[in-house]
Amino acid sequence: MKAARLYDYDPDMNVSLRIENVQTPTIKAPDEVIVKVGAAGLCRTDLHIIEGVWREIMDPDGALLPYTMGHENAGWIEDVGSAVKSVKPGDAVICHPLRTCGICLPCRYGEDMYCEHGLFPGLGLDGGFAEYFVTNERSVIKLGDGIRPLDVAPMADAGITAYRAAKRASKLLHPGTTAVILGVGGLGHIALQSLKALSGCRVIAIDREPAARALAKDLGADIVLDGGPTVIEEVHDHTGGGAQVVIDFVGELGVENITWRMARKGGQTFVVGYGGTVQVPTLDLVVNEINIGGSLVGNYTELVELMELNADGKVKMHYEQYGLDEINTALSDFKNRKFVGRGVIVP
Ligand SMILES: [Zn+2]
Ligand SMILES: [Zn+2]
After folding, report:
1. Keyword annotations for this protein (predicted)?
2. Interhelix angle for 158-170 vs 300-311, to 10°?
C-alpha cells in the first residue's frame, strides 16, 4: 500500500514526507481492526512532530523513524480480529485517536485520554497518512447513514478537542456571558459551532487571517476581531471587564500570554494550542481569581456526542482536500495558512 513516511525531524520544517510502498498491515491481536482510510486530517501536531517537538516523548530511543503520521482518521473497516463484535468489514467509522485498553481505572471512569496503556496511531506508531492503518475496536464509532468519512475525519482529533473545551466552557456560560475563541482554524471553527449549540452565550472570535474571520462570521460569531495590538482592551470594552471564558487554540507565538488577560474576574481560560509558556503574576491570579487550565483531546463519548451534532447539521467541518501524493503541498499550505478550516488527506 501507499504511505507518506517521515524520515527526519527538522526544526525548520525543510523536510518532505516520502510517499512509499510499504507492507499493508495485518491483524496481530484479537481486538484489532484494520481501517481502509477514507480521509485523514492534517494537524498542527503533525507540524510539531516534524519539528521534533514530540521527539523525547514519542521516540525516546531514536528508533521510530521512518514512520507514518496521521491521527485524525475515518474510513471503512477492512478486517477485524477474532474478538471484535461491534463492527464488520465495510462499516464506515471514525476513529477516536487513542487505542485505549478498557481495563485500567481511568478507562473505567471513561477518561480515555488518561488510559494507562493507550497507544496513539500517528504519534509513535503508524497512522492514517496511508491506504490502511490499524487500531482497535474500542476506538471506532460507526458513522450514521449518509455520513461520509471525508466530511468528518478531522473530528477524530481536532473536532473532539474543540468540542471538549467548548463543552467544559458551556458549563460556565449562560445567556449574557461571553466566550472568546482565539484562533479560528481547524479547532476554533468547531468550538464556535459547539458553543453555539451548547450554550446561549455570546462569542467573540479572534483571528489575524481575514478568511478565518469571514468563516467565524458565517458560523455565527457575535463579534469578530483581528487580534491587533489593542485586542485585550477591545475584549474588555465589548464585555464590560473581560470574558467569562477564553479558549486559546494557539498557545504559542505570544498568544498564550494574551489569553488570561482577557478573562474577567472569576473567569476561566482553557489552553488547547501549545508550544509557548504561560507566565502569570500570582497577584493577577489572586486579585482576579482567574482559573487557568488545559484541555486534552476528548473522550470517546464526547466524540459520539459530536457526531450526533454533526448528523443534526449543527456542527460541520470546513476542509480543503488533498491527495496523499500532495501531502507535502498540504503541509506547506497548512503552515502558511493558505486554507481555512482543516486540511484533509485522501489516499
Ligand atoms: Zn490532531
Ligand atoms: Zn486504559
Report:
1. Metal-binding, Oxidoreductase, Zinc
2. 90
Residue with cell 509513535: 124
For the chain, the average pLDDT equals 96
Which fold is adopted by the domain 2-157+298-346?
Quinone Oxidoreductase; Chain A, domain 1 (3.90.180)
Q: Rounded to the nearest whole angstrom, what is the distance from the C-alpha of residue 81 to the centroid of ligand 2?
A: 19
Which CATH code of 3.30.160.20, 3.40.50.720, 3.30.565.10, 3.30.200.20 fits the domain covering 159-294? 3.40.50.720
Ligand 2 centroid, distance to 98 Cα (angstroms):
10
Give yes or no for residue 71 having a pLDDT over 90: yes
13-34, pLDDT tens digit by residue?
877 899 999 999 999 999 999 9
**Burial (0-12, 13-18, 19+ Cβ within 10 Å), 5:** middle
Distance 241 CA to ligand 1 centre (A): 34
214-273 confidence digits (pLDDT tens)? 999 999 999 999 999 999 999 999 999 999 999 999 999 999 999 999 999 999 999 999
> Could you give the CA distance from residue 205 to residue 243 in angstroms, rounded to a whole number?
12
